[in-house]
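Sample pair:
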Amino acid sequence: MIKIMSKSHIYKLKVFVEDVDFGRVFYSRYLQYIERARTELIYSRLGLTLTQLMNEYDIMFVVRSCNIKYLKSASFEDNLSVETTVLKKTNVRLNLLQEVKRGAETLVYAEVELAVVDRSGSIKKLSKDIFGKI
């Protein structure tokens, strides 16, 4: 079963001095920003922490692939948002579009595919309840 989704999740953040190199956000920080946004998406949609998902449902979301495109740099003290949209979901995989924005301007976008696995790393299907909430 595949569903195309459209409702986005917004995660807001501010660029700190630890994020920058020569006044611009260092490229690897964007990966951290989008990771935080995915974690917040899980909290928001499921009402569960990642620890609860692992301990109570034996579910973890792992990055299977990430294709990132850098368009423009953010700077120290910029207010940013990460907009995460679920493009496609199946019982074992999520495909996301994540855009790092400064206002309406997209600075970075990433297409991220997540696999659903159990503690041993084996593919695991999402329950109907969790699938419906994502």
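The mean pLDDT is 94.
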